[in-house]
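Predict structure. Chain length: 199.
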Amino acid sequence: MFGLYPAGARWVRHFSAARAPRDIQKVLTVHAGFSAGIFHQPFGESRGAVIAQKGRLLVLAERVDSVSADLALVPDVQMQNLLWSFNSGYANQWGSRELRVLTGCDNWDALLRQASADYAQACDLVEEAVSGALEAKAAEKLAAEQLAAEKAAAAEVADARRLADPVVGTMYANDDDVPWLPSDYLFDAPHPEVASCAH
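Prediction complete.
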């Protein structure tokens, strides 16, 4: 199906899902920060079509329009070539400037640590998308956020009631005869009143 990739078997993870590849693509883009792929085949015919991408990692599907998905998670072509160079003993052909421009890392150690961490995280996210756990986590997070927002709104309403004007907020038994006055109306002014037209 997918075959071997230049970086080797360590950098390929296969997944099988009872869901369509387009459904998995949607879950990964909505809930996991992946970008949607355009179904191109960067490694050639029958080597997988890109359904999603995160950084330098590609999620490939054997067939895009199938009911179930056979997927592979691999580094992109440029990262594959760099990893192949390292694994094949050609690491010294890449200088620190070239590595920094291509990957943002100054040396092979930093590059391998970063690539391994990104790959492990992406593997976990794809696994969760395939199993449906990613959507469940997103639903739980949304419910928790809604609950927190409802509690905050209730606290705000309670504060508003507590700070409400006691005169305005009080209902009288027969309030048709009571004039409306703000609560500070009967307090003295902080400075004496001066006639506006003194002669």
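Summary: The longest helix spans residues 133-162.
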